[in-house]
Amino acid sequence: MTKDDRFIIAGLGGAKTLQGEIVIGGAKNEALKVLAGSVLFQDGFTALNVPEIEDVHRLIELLKRLGIKVEHPEKNKYSFDTTELKEFSLPADISKKLRASIVITGPLLARFGKVIFPYPGGCVIGKRPIDLFLAGFRKMGAKITEDGENFVVEAENGHLVGAEIFSKIQSVTVTETFMMAGVLARGKTVLKNCPVEPEIVSLGEWLNECGAKITGLGTSTIIIEGGELLQGQDKIHHTLPDRIEAGSFIILGALAGKEIIVKKCRPDHLDALIAYLSEAGVEIETGPDWVKVINSGREKFTSLDVKTHEYPGFPTDLQAPFSIFLTQAEGQSYLFETIFEGRLNYFDALSRMGAKVKVLDSHRAIIDGPTPLSGREIESPDLRAGLAYVLAAIIASGQSVVHNVEYIDRGYEEIEKRLVSLGLEIKRVSGDDKNELCQCLPQN
Length: 444
Ligand code: EPZ
Fold this sequence. Notes:
Elements: E1 6-10, E2 18-23, H1 28-36, E3 44-48, H2 54-65, E4 69-74, E5 77-81, H3 92-95, H4 102-112, E6 114-118, H5 131-139, E7 142-146, E8 150-155, E9 164-166, H6 172-184, E10 188-192, H7 198-209, E11 213-215, E12 221-225, E13 236-238, H8 243-256, E14 257-263, H9 271-280, E15 283-286, E16 290-294, E17 305-307, H10 319-327, E18 331-336, H11 347-353, E19 356-359, E20 364-369, E21 377-379, H12 383-395, E22 399-403, H13 405-409, H14 415-420, E23 426-429
Parallel strand pairs: 2-14, 3-13, 9-10, 17-18, 21-22
Antiparallel strand pairs: 1-22, 1-23, 3-5, 4-5, 6-8, 7-8, 10-12, 11-12, 14-16, 15-16, 18-20, 19-20
Helix pairs in contact: 1-2, 1-7, 4-6, 6-7, 8-10, 8-12, 10-12
The site of ligand EPZ has 25 residues, from helix 1, helix 5, helix 6 and helix 12.
């Protein structure tokens, strides 16, 4: 994996020929928080089904810089030893590249009474403010100053005090950060207006298994009784299957599969996507841990009105991949991205491939279909739009080159190997390999 790796994809031109099984990896947006939660432990723990993706590798580098010892005995398995954790200042070079690093600030502040961190990084999908984090720290008795580069947050008397925190917006990482801060705060913390994503519930259940006292998981009010450092020495965390990765491949199945089975997933975490695809006319079967998408090749998909929403609504992380499906649905579809204001930033390239899209404002778009797409050279602007471009390239006629694959590597483990196993012609070309660029492609 090098800077500006790119995928060269031979489009199927609308043929639905891919077939086989795709095994889903561990959930990026759970693993990152479980790893961040290692800061709450006196001893450490082991985690399985951890996806081997860039964001996880970056976070592990960050944990090591804080003094946590990490062992990686085999693929997807990591063990953590926190006995020598002593640092509470997040290194900018890593934390600026990783939005999830913000989640560590709560546990570090709760454990050491102080945390220093730069404005977090991550995908450019809107301004990604951190006002709710800063407001929550103040509520728990911390003072915040800025030193030009970093926020310096210090708890009065050296420890956080439990508080009631109503989040004006349902925020996943805010909820996770303060759920973890509450584990070591003095007294009770009550979090109100929490989203109920499965990753939040699984994180809370894991912390409880190691000695935390968290109730209300899966509801909009989570209560945490503050206590001691957690113990996890003999405990093993099994990371949830990644519902966004699973959903991405189910959409691929609808677009280009003859018959694709997505395995080791949680169909019960995918109700919204399955409901929308079924309404559009896609044939889907589900089992305890698999979803099968079948295409006769003659079906016509009907257009939909899609609105993203916190779980169990339609996930914003599947909005871009699902738009590719809408370009192939008959009629006019209406898309409303309610969570992020910068998450429709990928439509220009799709229009150059032949999609008929009208972006109404920073939250809404109209997509007319079906439209055949043509291969192009395109640049992924972020992780999920990058995946959407791969889907577009797969159904397009002719070759496409998808740049900035490092964004896709942040959230999908070895995606090209799994796509090849379905029968797709896709090749990763490393950033420093100049002679592989397709001369045949029309410049976009
Ligand atoms: C998490 O991001 C996920 N990332 C995102 O996945 C996901 O899209 C998002 O939740 C929504 O489901 C991780 O878990 C690492 P939010 P998060 O705070 O927590 C606003 C992916 O592709 N807000 O729930 O950062 C914010 O601007 C990534 O895997 C504030 O206003 O998202 C947004 O409009 C992308 N102030 C809304 O809340 C704050 O202080 C919800 O965002 C914090 C957030």
